Amino acid sequence: MSDELTPVPDAEPIKDPGLPEHLYRPQDVDESQAKRTERQISWMFRVAGLLFIGFVVAYIAIDIDATFLGWSAQNFAFGVTLGGGMLLIGVGIIQWAKKLMGDHEMIEMRHPAASSDEDRVAVLADINAGVEESGFGRRPMIRNSLLVSMGLLGLPAIVLLRDLGPLPHDQRRTVWTKGMRLVNDVTGTPIKPSDLQVGQLVNGQPAIVYETDADGQPVLHGTELLQVKSKASIIVVRMRPEDITADKGKENWGIDGILCFSKICTHVGCPISLWEQQTHHLLCPCHQSTFDLGDNGKVIFGPAHRPLPQLPLGLDDEGYIIAMSDFPDIIAPSYPELARDQKKLDNKS
Amino acid sequence: MRSSVRKLSTRRRHPLAGFVVLLLALVAVGGVYTAVAPKPATAQEATTNDVEAGRDLFLIGCASCHGKNATGIETQRGNNYGPSLIGVGAASVDFQVGTGRMPLAQAAPQAPDKKPEYTAEETRQLAAYIASLAPGPAVPDGEYTDLDKASTEDIREGGELFRANCTACHNSVGAGGALPGGRYAPTLKGVSAKHIAEAMITGPQQMPVFSDDVITPEDKRNIIAYVKQVQEQPNYGGLGGGGLGPVVDGLFTWIIGIGGLIIAAIWIGAHGARVKKRS
Amino acid sequence: MSTTEQEYTPIQDTGVGKKAAGPVGWLDDRLGLAGVAKKNLRKVFPEHWSFMLGEIALWSFVVLLITGVFLTLWFQPSMTEVEYHGSYMPFNGLEMSSAYKSTLDISFDIRGGLLIRQIHHWAAALFVAAMIVHMLRVFFTGAYRRPREINWLIGVGLFSLGLVEGFAGYSLPDDLLSGTGLRFVDGLIRSIPLVGSYIEFFLFGGEFPGDEIIPRLYMAHILLIPAILLGLVGAHMLLLIYHKHTQWPGPGRTEKNVVGYPMLPVYAAKAGGFFFVVFGFTALMGALLQINPIWIYGPYNPSEVTAGSQPDWYMGFSEGLVRLMPGWESTFFNYTWSWNVFIPGVGGLTTLFVVLGAWPFIEQWITGDKREHHLLERPRNAPVRTAIGVAGMTAYGVAWAAGGNDILATKFHMDIYTLTWIFRIAFFVAPFIAFMITKRICIGLQRADANRILHGYETGVIERSPDGGFSERHAPLPAGQQYVLTAHDRVPALEAPVEADENGVAAPHSRKEKLRARLRAFYYRDQLDKPTVQDVHHAEEHLGEHDGHPVELGDEFQGVSETGVPRVH
């Protein structure tokens, strides 16, 4: 197969008529037109300058809290003066180029992208000479040992990155333990079954999130608090008991139709609280994974795969709802070791 | 002697004079008490007349779906035309009728809000009737709706509660959100504080219930105060885009940004006016 | 036409050159730049609006650099928890990260801060959009063919880095919306088979969210990626200058020349002016259109989310793919393989860049065309390439729309599950339909072009023949226009590959060659070839019988020109 496309005899039905005759602009032939355009452009620049001064005036005169048309007055004033001025300068320069600068079309010849043959030959000769003189080819012992040591230089560079982070640790557990109270998010108040009506949704947290130590400082704060919340957040829903079909072994995980599930979606970890009280479906707003809480948190639509983990509930001696253990399923978006860790968790319980 | 001078009327007493004095005393004490006593929890008291009027309105406009006794009408398949209203309370009625959701104009995945069919008085009467059938949540009073009483700290906490409980369905500015099956979480813009409180208390249709025992009346007031604050504050940066986020920004980028700049590019490359040169 | 000779007048005799002789001479004594300047000062660039799309991207990048430096003066890239006591009252006393607090300060307590933030964000959105529009222009005109394949690859690199840079940038304020996006990226990384949790722990410095990710994204956003971008942009421009810009075919334009205007003064002015236009445009957008109002979203909290969570528009296609994917996850060898996240997330992004990067080489393999090309191809003259491009855009568009399926459901009162299913099917079916429609449209346009050459254009002059029939007078197109319509390659003759030589020895790689021949045939098969010389002669005679020029009808109606403008005598 040839490199060139097969040439066809009569290639060009229409011949190239060449560059068209140059047409002049009004500014080229009429000096008064040119002067008018010049004035027009000059005015654009002048107004732009005024706008920039206006920016400074606005900066000094407008209060930071002032509003204009329901927007921040400063933002509006700064942006309109700055933007308007820039735009005018740009338009002026372009108008200058279009109307007043020389507009004869020019032709420049192209050169082939490849270097010329003489240059190539010369360069190859230089490379050969250089490599010859270096002895790279003739002295394999130096060459090979150099290459190996250079390769090994990569190791310190990579190894230095080791402390970017800890090795992945056990992700099986959350802060939930037997006896920990469920509390309402933000207010931290514990919950009794009588507080909840059928159709209710509570966005909750483990009680430890709102615990304070002897000095009145929160036990969990900052990064640690966020890490706890990203795994231990829960939702509590109350349904009519006849609407729940619990899996074997989970029949007593609820209290009179009150169930507790993880708030963290098993897809990529967004918190879910879009609860439809009549259909018992829980919809994640991120990618629309839907879980049926009347059916053990089973996935009924969307890209999630694992059902929503459920927390077994009980009551403490004051009548508040508590967890009876940690989550038996791993909370988290899926990760490679999930299957292994889940097995370990199942074996423990 | 002074004590001996008496008016003729001092010895004259009507047999019922004692009762009159008692009556006057009761009225006086009652009046003073009413004047100085704190307002009762319910905003409006239902009189027996309201209940009767409400029942009449109910039979005309609501019984066809909710049943003559408001116990609901079930279909053969076990669905219902209209659910039972026993125990839903005045708050539910005030919400559903006051926002125009009820009466339902046509079958739909969800009752949309529309212009209310009943006047405020009729709504109150309907609410009184339903409330008379069984105990249920009352129409929220100032404890829930006196937004002026919310301090800055209250508004801040209301915001935290709003983001923890509400934004997942209703979005950060209460612009609303999508639910499956053609249902949706409606916008909160232009909704009165009372109606928002009622929705939280009664959990209309798919919306969950947020009972006063978990989200207290004060919490509810703070949430509503935050929502109003966020909706009424200026859009500091300019045209808002309806609170729909990056989707609208993307539209503006392409239509206004790229569109405008391509128009500018076409202008830059365009040939302007040409003349025939005078030879 | 003769080339204009550059005559060199001694510097002392020219105007500005005379004044500049002093300082320029001082510089040149030390730097010897005259050689470079000589080649480039009056370099010719061709004129067309579609050549300025890359400039939008370039100037947006400069705007980003300038506004970005401003923002770094106040932004604090730290996830340390602080209490807010600034001007935005609904957050008074609220705990948040230092990054979020500093962004609030920039928005409410630094004068002009909100404007610069908004300009920065609009410019970022424009940057990626302009790159896409520029890339589409280059694709549909075939400007990526030899010798510009490397420049195309640099462009794909710029595009992919631009996406990452934008993502890093809008995640820096650590607000609820972008934090939700980071949570998604965390899940994406975890889905990488076998090594996912290791990469996650190294990137985040531990479990999500940790306190390392914002400072690390900051480093990437202000140092690492801009440096690479600057280098790539420099290389991109250098190659453009070396190869010279491509041009549309037309009178006087050949594969061996460039016709246009010189860099100094015309293009320096137009490009420089366009910079101010782009900057002014983004500043006006920052003044009038709100973008990323982080104070509405609140600080990031892993237990909070907002309905209608989307990433910035350029990540929309990836978001859409993730939403459309069914929930497939499997367990092999005691490991979890999250296909539901890995395929659309990592797989989708990688596929896009690999396909884009490989395309020039795939096309070259199919067509066998290894010549240098400096004249652009009109999209209609490469119907299969154009149709493939439109099919690709369709697939991308469906994924992009799917990323906003909940907004669409809310606004148009549709069921979100139904919408998702429609998009799932459309993602596979719509590109095929788009391909077929586009290809047919291109061939139709080619037919229209051929008609205009062979039959001329319609003048709007209606004639009545002696026997009563009406017809419209046609006139030949001006020579320049005719040339434009035919200034493209002929469709090559398609040969079947040699299966065996004369001794019956089978050709090596014959299966590959057969596939290549089939693809090549498909590529060229249906498109129209341009008219032959005989066709054109024949047409000229035919038109000549009816006079070659518009009919004289007196002083009023002279028919219309080829662009439909009525002629006035």
Task: Provide a brief overview of the structure.
Chain A is 35% helix and 14% strand. Chain A is built from seven helices and 14 strands.
Give me some keywords for this one:
heterotrimer; B: 279 residues; mainly alpha; Cytochrome Bc1 Complex, Chain D, domain 2; two-stranded antiparallel sheet; 11 helices; elongated; disordered N terminus; C: 569 residues; Cytochrome Bc1 Complex, Chain C; two-stranded antiparallel ribbon; 19 helices; 8 strands; globular
List the total number of helices of chain A: 7
Overall form of chain B: elongated
Helix content bin of chain A: 25-40%
Q: Mean of residue pLDDT of chain A?
A: 91
| Structural class by secondary-structure content of chain B | mainly alpha
The side-by-side strand order for the widest beta sheet of chain A comes to: 4-5-6-7-12
Radius of gyration of chain B: 31 Å
Biggest sheet strand order of chain B reads 1-2
- Average residue pLDDT of chain B: 86
Helix share, percent of chain B: 40-55%
Describe the fold and architecture.
The complex is a heterotrimer of chains A (349), B (279) and C (569). Chain A is α+β, with helices and mostly antiparallel strands. Chain A contains 7 helices and 14 strands. In chain A, 35% of the residues lie in helices and 14% in strands. The model of chain A has no long low-confidence stretch (mean pLDDT 91). Among the domains of chain B are: 86 residues, Cytochrome c-like domain (Cytochrome Bc1 Complex, Chain D, domain 2, Orthogonal Bundle); 91 residues, Cytochrome c-like domain (Cytochrome Bc1 Complex, Chain D, domain 2). Chain B has 279 residues and is mainly α. The longest helix of chain B is centred in the last third of the chain and has 24 residues. Chain B starts with 16 loop residues before the first helix and ends in a 10-residue tail after the last helix. Chain C has a domain of 309 residues: Cytochrome Bc1 Complex, Chain C (Up-down Bundle). The two termini of chain C are 31 Å apart. Chains A and B meet through helix 1, strand 2, helix 3, strand 5 and strand 8 of A and helix 7 of B. Strand 3 of chain A pairs antiparallel with strand 4 of chain C, so a sheet runs across the interface.
